[in-house]
């Protein structure tokens, strides 16, 4: 009989690879990520890790191998059920805009085309940012993005990406927050989000003192890929 206590699987990847104009980017990579909670992919920073996170969120199609996210295998379907935040190539925010501007833009993007969305107010900040910030102070409407702390800036990017609360939330590397205490707060907030969603992120050294799953991932750096090619020569 199947084990009814076994966790549901959110992500299954088998031998997925990515190639760019200059050759391999990552892979082959195998992953099994359980549904719910936070999973940290432990691997060095770089284009390979970024591309892998984007693949898991349906923003890139693997060159080979198989990927299933909550049973969905088409990139378009994975995209529709995943949020992606904290990837500079995709959601970098202009420093000269305010929190009000960003939230207003997101609310307009989420709304039906025929609805008139006024400029964001305090209630909108609470609705958009509250689930992500939790007990932490919400960013002031008039604050410029460049004036936010690293933690608040990343939490804001997560909040903007996560307004639809999809099953999967993929967050760029934890090292974006360089302060150890603030990074600890970031992980705490991701753990809270993991109570309702499956959260996947990445880090160099992993995470301690938090209830997260850590998976070491190989074949994401140029050195690893070069050694792999030499071994197969």
TrEMBL record:
MF annotations from Gene Ontology: ATP binding; ATP hydrolysis activity
InterPro entries to which the protein is assigned, alphabetical: ABC_transporter-like_ATP-bd (IPR003439), P-loop_NTPase (IPR027417)
Pfam family, one: ABC_tran
Domain ABC transporter: 28-117
Protein name as it appears in the record: ABC transporter domain-containing protein
Organism: Mycolicibacterium vanbaalenii (strain DSM 7251 / JCM 13017 / BCRC 16820 / KCTC 9966 / NRRL B-24157 / PYR-1)
């Amino acid at each position: 009989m199947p084990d009814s206590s076994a966790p549901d699987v959110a992500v299954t990847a088998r031998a997925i690879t990515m190639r760019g104009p200059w050759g391999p980017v990552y892979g082959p990579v195998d992953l099994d990520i359980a549904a719910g909670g936070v999973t940290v992919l432990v691997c060095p920073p770089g284009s390979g890790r970024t591309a892998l996170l984007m693949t898991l969120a349906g923003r890139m199609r693997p060159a080979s191998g198989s990927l299933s996210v909550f049973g969905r295998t088409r990139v378009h379907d994975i995209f529709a059920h995943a949020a992606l935040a904290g990837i500079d190539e995709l959601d970098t925010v202009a420093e000269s805009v305010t929190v009000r501007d960003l939230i207003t833009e997101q609310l307009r993007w989420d709304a039906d085309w025929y609805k008139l969305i006024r400029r964001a107010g305090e209630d909108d900040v609470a609705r958009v940012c509250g689930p992500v910030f939790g007990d932490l102070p919400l960013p002031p409407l008039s604050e410029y993005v460049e004036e936010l702390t690293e933690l608040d800036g990343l939490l804001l990017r997560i909040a903007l990406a996560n307004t639809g609360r999809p099953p999967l939330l993929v967050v760029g590397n934890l090292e974006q927050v360089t302060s150890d205490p603030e990074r600890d707060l970031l992980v705490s907030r991701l753990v809270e989000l993991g109570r309702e969603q499956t959260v996947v992120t990445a880090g160099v050294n992993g995470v301690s003192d938090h209830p997260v799953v850590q998976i070491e991932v190989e074949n994401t750096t140029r050195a690893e890929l070069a050694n792999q090619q030499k071994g197969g020569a």
